[in-house]
């Protein structure tokens, strides 16, 4: 009854607001233009979800199979309602929903699986709206700027959409145009989310999701400034120029504004499209290694991290002339700049995780705010079980059984996970999201069992630590010592990598078979 009343109230609000505007202006308008409609819809959805959790689990004994089944069904219904709210309110809501959908191993699977569709269900602005934004920002009509402009966007995201076009001078460009209403609605939407999250916390004290609203409040203004995105693109292209396989579209500054970004047009297949890789003869293991190199360099060495590597933002193509595989990195609106102290603690934590040095895992986890929850923190970072962390994450391949165990534990430890997310530095939140998106790509390419990503991370950690130590001493002798230790560490990793390659090769199989035969004969 309560749910039905809330739905009727929401629908009535929409109807009254829309009808009132129509009578006033003799022209229909999207109900989302009215704050009361967006607020009413969000409040109604939050109330229905809260009511469902309170009533559905009230009389079911905890710890029973029935309880787990009912809880899973409530998770699923709530996730679907949340998804529908995001699709209806659009803009900021879709952006936050996408963030939640990327938090694999942090949220119950019912939520992440349901909300992942928001990456492909972002709304499109009409051509009239696109023309309006271009006219307002550039002072010209589309026909004055372009020889051709494709009406159907190449892709639509929560904040903008991208069109392929040809300029008057013959350049083929990708034009990113912001949805016209996002700028005005975003601040109000974030305030609404804060209020609703606080209200839910009053009912469920263990519910700790304020970090989500805080992150949105900090990052959205940066993402809505396309000039900032252009600067990020140029910075990362310069920073990673030593990687010849990385391509970042060139920015055309003479035409770009805060809401319209002109870029060099580049095309390729999405990084998780394994069928595309097979059709184009792209080695998925090499691709996965190179992607790991990029992100290890960004995180551990430079401390400037592209934090939205979902498949639509990472394209792959095979160069027809050199036959080399290129990684095209798009959408540079969301970056995280890491402080040196955080970056080095994070770097040393990963070194400890790779070496299965539990004493140092505890030390650096606690320095990063994990406190007594450091085992849970280690599992969240690696997406591995505590047993695998103790035995060495580069020694044991990921299994389907372990994945199920992690997801089950994520649901069981949700209050502790939320406490942890509220205690760790804000810099860590986007890194967790980035880790999960990269793992999703590895899972799609079926390369998660490879140890290469950990080897690349180890190299970057050694380099970053050595660079920091050299910067802290004036002694030439000490600098030489540090450089020698760095070279030795990198050599050991290369030697281990060679061993792994030989072990997996035909020669390695022959040697193993021969040794086994010798052992049998003796």
From TrEMBL:
Keyword terms of this UniProt record: Kinase, Transferase
Any one of the GO BP annotations: mitochondrion organization
A GO MF label: protein kinase activity
SMART domains tied to this protein: S_TKc (SM00220)
GO cellular component, one term: mitochondrial inner membrane
Superkingdom, natural source: Eukaryota
Domain Protein kinase: 148-460
Function, in words: Appears to be essential for maintaining mitochondrial cristae formation and mitochondrial function by acting via YME1L1 in a kinase-independent manner to regulate essential mitochondrial structural proteins OPA1 and IMMT. The action of this enzyme is not yet clear. It is not known if it has protein kinase activity and what type of substrate it would phosphorylate (Ser, Thr or Tyr).
Family: Belongs to the protein kinase superfamily. ADCK protein kinase family.
Protein name per UniProt: AarF domain-containing protein kinase 1
Organism: Eublepharis macularius
């Amino acid at each position: 009854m309560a749910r039905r009343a809330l739905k009727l109230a929401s629908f009535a609000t929409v109807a009254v607001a829309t009808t009132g505007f129509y009578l006033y202006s003799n022209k229909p308008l999207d109900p989302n233009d009215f704050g009361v409609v967006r607020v009413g819809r969000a409040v109604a959805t939050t109330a229905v979800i809260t009511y469902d959790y309170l009533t559905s689990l009230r009389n079911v004994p905890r710890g029973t199979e029935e309880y787990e089944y009912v809880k899973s069904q409530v998770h699923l219904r709530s996730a679907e309602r949340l998804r529908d709210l995001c699709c209806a309110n659009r803009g900021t809501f879709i952006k936050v929903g996408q963030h939640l959908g990327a938090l694999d191993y942090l949220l119950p699977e019912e939520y992440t699986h349901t909300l992942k569709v928001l990456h492909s269900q972002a709304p499109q602005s009409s051509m009239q709206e696109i023309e309006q934004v271009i006219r307002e920002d550039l002072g010209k009509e589309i026909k004055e700027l372009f020889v051709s402009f494709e009406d159907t966007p190449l892709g639509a995201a929560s904040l903008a959409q991208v069109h392929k076009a040809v300029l008057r001078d013959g350049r083929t460009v990708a034009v990113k145009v912001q949805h016209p209403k996002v700028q005005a609605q975003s601040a109000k939407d974030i305030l609404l989310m804060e209020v609703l999250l606080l209200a839910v916390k009053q009912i469920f004290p263990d519910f700790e999701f304020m970090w989500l609203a805080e992150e949105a409040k900090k990052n959205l203004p940066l993402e809505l400034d396309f000039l900032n995105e252009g600067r990020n693109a140029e910075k990362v292209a310069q920073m990673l120029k030593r990687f010849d396989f990385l391509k970042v579209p060139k920015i055309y500054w003479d035409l770009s504004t805060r809401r319209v970004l002109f870029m060099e047009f580049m095309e390729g297949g999405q990084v998780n499209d394994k069928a595309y890789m097979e059709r184009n003869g792209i080695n998925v293991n090499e691709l996965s290694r190179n992607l790991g190199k990029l992100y290890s360099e960004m995180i551990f060495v430079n401390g400037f991290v592209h934090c939205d590597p979902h498949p639509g933002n990472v394209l792959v193509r095979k160069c027809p002339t050199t036959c080399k595989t290129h990684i095209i990195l798009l959408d540079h609106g969301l970056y995280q700049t890491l402080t040196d102290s955080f970056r080095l603690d994070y770097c040393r934590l990963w070194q400890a995780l790779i070496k299965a040095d539990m004493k140092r895992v505890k030390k650096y986890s606690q320095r990063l705010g994990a406190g007594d929850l450091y085992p849970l923190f280690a599992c969240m970072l690696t997406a591995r079980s505590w047993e695998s962390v103790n035995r060495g994450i580069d020694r044991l391949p990921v299994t389907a059984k372990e994945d199920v165990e992690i997801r089950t534990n994520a649901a069981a430890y949700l209050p502790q996970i939320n406490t942890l997310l509220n205690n760790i530095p804000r810099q860590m939140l986007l890194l967790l999201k980035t880790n999960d998106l990269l793992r999703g790509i590895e899972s799609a390419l079926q390369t998660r069992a490879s140890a290469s990503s950990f080897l690349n991370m180890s190299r970057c950690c050694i380099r970053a630590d050595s660079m920091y130590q050299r910067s802290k001493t004036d002694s030439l002798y000490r600098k030489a010592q540090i450089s020698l230790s760095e070279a030795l560490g990198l050599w050991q990793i290369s030697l281990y990598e060679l061993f792994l390659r030989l072990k997996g090769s035909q020669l390695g199989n022959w040697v193993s078979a021969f040794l086994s035969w010798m052992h049998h004969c003796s």
